[in-house]
Sequence to fold (119 residues):
Amino acid sequence: VQLQASGGGLVQPGGSLRLSCVASGTIFSIISMAWYRRAPGKQRELVAFITSASSNTNYGDSVKGRFTISRDNAKNTVYLQMNSLKPEDTADHYCSAGTGFYSYTPEHWGKGTQVTVSS
Fold:
């Protein structure tokens, strides 16, 4: 399974970014997908995950109400819409393919895309 994330960049506080992750080498429509992030000096954090048919989504407490995860199974792509960005959202964001409905178990990892929130 190959996962390629894109869409990161530098944005001012309060701004928005949309991350994308394209998957290949798997039957995308039957797997759950997730976004993680890791900031310097901090542990990896689950940002959000979404089940195969988009029937369930789950968010980390730090991003609830600001971020939205979605997917387009026809394009083998999962998205992360990030609004009201804060400096503490600065991190390397990367996607994962895995399993689970109420909880998520990662099985495959992609390389990250850097998000920097700064004025």
Summary: The CA atoms of residues 68 and 95 lie 14 Å apart. DSSP finds no helices and eleven strands in the chain. The mean pLDDT is 95. The two ends are 37 Å apart (CA to CA).
